[in-house]
Amino acid sequence: MRGKFINGDCMEYLPKYEDNHFDLAIVDPPYGQVWGNLADITSGNKKKMKNFYKQTKAWDFLPNKDYFKELSRVSKERLIFGYNYFTDFIGPTNDLIVWDKMITGNEMFLRFELIYSSKNTSKIFRLSNSKLDKVHPTQKPVALYKWLLKNYAKEGDLILDTHVGSASSLIACEDMGFDYVGFELDKDYYQAASKRLENYLAQLKIF
After folding, report:
1. Is the dihedral of CA 6, 11, 17, 19 positive or negative?
2. What is the pLDDT of residues 64-117, one digit of tens each?
3. What is the pTM (predicted TM-score) of this model?
4. 98 in Cβ contact with 81 (< 8 Å)
5. Is domain 4-31+62-96+114-206 in CATH 3.30.2420.10, yes or no?
6. Residue 106 has what pLDDT?
7. Taking the CB of residue 182, how many other CB atoms lie within 10 A of it?
8. CB neighbours (10 Å) of residue 196?
9. What distance in Å separates the CA atoms of residue 117 and residue 95, rounded to the nearest whole number?
10. Are 125 and 99 in contact (CB under 8 A)?
11. Of 4, 23, 26, the residue nearest 146 (C-alpha)
12. Which of 81, 92, 158, 203 has its CA 20 to 30 A from that of 175?
């Protein structure tokens, strides 16, 4: 394993790092606890949305201004999923990556996701998110993280992920040779993500 994967609250650990310790933070903070508002702006069924979020965990623990302050302090550059939910903390910007999930039909998730970039750039990336074998409700494709690393990281960078979830980001780092530090607060998600990462590393050894 090239990095560290910690079962804990990132806000207990980030203050221990010096300024600009990480070269690039790629983070996907939770923002889906307001299921009613999300239901209003999606084509999904409101009852279905409510039942879905009842099955998820830790959606009430939204990042606050202290989180974004620490994130900015410890990382030189940042890519932040869900920019439209965090404009009060990040501020207005045109430096956005648009992820087109290529969703068709009546789905409960938005077709596009906005990713804030501190690197003063705008791009569009198209990749389906509909056929994943998910271990986490907001799991992102490994290919998405590999694209982000390819376009926004450089060789030798240390990567930070404060909300690892399914470990897609860590698998991408392993595959592309980046050292990393990742945090996951929920024990069950941590165990599932660790198993997924271990299975991937075991396959690497075989081939």
Report:
1. positive
2. 999 999 999 999 999 999 999 999 999 999 999 999 988 776 555 678 999 999
3. 0.84
4. no
5. no
6. 54
7. 25
8. 20
9. 6
10. yes
11. 26
12. 81
Listed by start position, the domains of the chain span: 4-31+62-96+114-206
Place of tokens 């996907």: 28
Q: In whole angstroms, give the CA distance from residue 23 to residue 97.
A: 19
Q: Is 2 exposed, middle or buried (CB count within 10 Å of its CB: 0-12, 13-18, 19+)?
A: middle
- Return the amino acid letter for 55: Q
The residue type found at 88 is: D
Calpha distance 137→189 (Å, rounded): 10
Residue 42, burial from CB neighbour count under 10 angstroms (0-12, 13-18, 19+): middle
d(CA 38, CA 43): 10
Cα distances (Å, whole numbers) of residue 96 to 46, 137, 146, 186: 29, 23, 17, 29
